[in-house]
Amino acid sequence: MTIYDIAQIAGVSASTVSRVINNKPGIKESTRKRIQKLLTEYDYTPNAAARGLVMQASRFVGILIEDIRVEHHTESAYVIEQEMTRRSYTCITFSTGADPQRKADYIRILEQRRVEGVILIGSMFGTPEVRRSIEQHLSNIPVVLVNGALDLPNTYSVLVDEERGTEECVTMLAQAGRRRLAYIMDVATPSNLNKQRGFYTGMLRCGLDTDGRCVFTAPGAGTNPRDSIQRGRIAARQMLQELPEVEGVLCATDMLAIGCLQELRAQGIDVPRAVAVTGVDNTLHGQLFTPALTTLDNKLAEVSLAAARMLLDVLEGSPVSQKIMLLTQIIRREST
Description:
Blueprint: H1 3-10, H2 14-21, H3 29-41, H4 48-55, E1 60-65, H5 71-86, E2 90-95, H6 100-112, E3 117-121, H7 128-137, E4 143-146, E5 155-160, H8 162-175, E6 181-185, H9 190-205, E7 215-217, H10 225-242, E8 248-251, H11 254-266, E9 276-280, H12 284-288, E10 294-297, H13 300-315, E11 323-326, E12 329-331
Parallel strand pairs: 1-2, 1-3, 3-4, 4-5, 5-11, 6-7, 6-8, 8-9, 9-10
Antiparallel strand pairs: 10-12
Helix pairs in contact: 1-2, 1-3, 5-13, 6-7, 8-9, 10-11
């Protein structure tokens, strides 16, 4: 059933039906009621694309994530999409891959799709390539970054204070009497580097030694979760060779921490009696592993929902802060 079919049955023009659908004035009340009755009777649903052309609004929102295989970011996309759909927006989600230029190319693709707003999930989108592409292709479109930032007039950020949270993890381990600590990371994202700063700050404030080797970088730069576990094992192996007296390990992600736990177990090292291990992200994998992983909860659902609502506020013309910061929480489990 089309708008033209409704118009023919009602004995009016298609433009009259359109005015009723869009609640426009200038229609006799008796005609309006007759058309509304037909719309209900035939269960008519307006074509969203056609309405977008008339209203000059697509109601499309673009979501970019680096790797759809990363459960943490996929969950974030889900929370965002649910909130946007609830408010009658349609989401287009792309997995860009790690290459900065490919990320920039997807910004151009979103322009071609006539999106009204964009959400970028993860600090890895805070690159010069993405910045230039936004300036070129989306300069008049609001862009919200989840746990990332770009200094542009049309960009907004929902950040997580992972630096402070990592500092608190160091304090927790130090208060438990663990003096020789290490930090394991892989990809040098702004998020992971913030955690590294928090690690160093925590070490200094607790009076712990930072002169020796205490930061270990796992090889590789991909985001495949299985690769992350293997990189965690490799970094843990290197750590045990160079810092055999280690008593506590902070890992930049839960997946790296699981790899670290696997390597400690393979080498017969008791967790947590000999070495305590913490991760970041509060994933289901960390809860299911044995021993269950202590982790820094970076409030995935809250951050994602805040990003969606921030974009909606911008689109609806409500006042919005350019940046907001959410706090983390340590979830203590068996690994510490």
